[in-house]
Structure formats: C-alpha cells, structure tokens
Amino acid sequence: MIDKKEQKTEPKNDIALLPQYSLRHILLIWAAAAIPMGILGWGVAPALAHLSQTPVLVRLAVLTIGLVWQFLLVMILLYREAGNLRWSTIRQRLWLTAPRSPRTGTPRARLWWWLVPLILLIAIYDLGLGGSVDHLWVSVFPFLAAPSGSDLSTILATPQAQAQLAGAWNVWGSLS
Question: For 15, which DSSP code?
C-alpha cells in the first residue's frame, strides 16, 4: 500500500526529471549557440554581401548555416543527455507534447488557446507597431541597429530586386 504523503511527492506527469546544468555549463551552451550566430550575422554575412550581386540571398544563406549549427548543437546535447535520438526521446526532451495543467499535471489541449492572444500581438506588432518600436529601440541603443542592407522588406521593394526575383520561385520558397 502506498502512503498518501509519498504519492504527493511523486512527479505528477510522466516526464523524466532532467539533470540541472551548472551556471558554467549553461553559459558555455549559450556561447556555443549565440557566438557563432553573432559572428555569422554581424561579421561574415555583411563581408560576403558586399562581394555579391544578391546580398540578401548571401545573408539568408549565411544565417541558415548558423541555424543548421544550432540544430546540430541541440542534437549533440540531446544525444549526450539521453543516449539516443529516437523521436520519442526528442519529443519528451524538447517538450513537444500537449500543454499540461500546472495543478494536476494532466495534458490539456485546451491550453493551446493561450497562443491566440500571443499570435495576435505578434501580428499587430509586425503590421503596425514594429517600425515605431524599432526606431525607438535604435535611438536608445544605436549599436543595436541592423547592418546596412539587411532589411529584407526594404531590399525587396527595389525595382532591381523585383526584377531579379521575377520567376525565381525557388527563392520565394526559401523566403516564406
């Protein structure tokens, strides 16, 4: 017979407890993900963009390489933690499951509705407030301004870019 006190101390869901990393380990993982993206986005991409006829595509390709690196880093960390890369392990470790009630620990698909206001806020920001907030942000922190030639909407609005992209469905597919 299981004591009621013991029952309450057990985890409320079937997710295995993950080991807690030390602060040093967390900072090393963060550096392994962030530093290469910073170097690629702020150093390599602008340097290569000046040498190309299509700087937007060069920037997109360089940043895609950085995202591939981040994916590989996640897979390496998952393999080191779990010992395999089966879908069931990846799903459990990356929390790709239905949201759970914080009180009961049971899966509740109804909690997905919390995303609707978030999606609406993101749409409002992107469609209206984004430019104003970005302008304010850069006026307060000028060193965070995007590198010249990296604003995709400005570049795609030029007649030269539109002429290059006419009929280039492979490029449009990669941008969407």
Answer: P
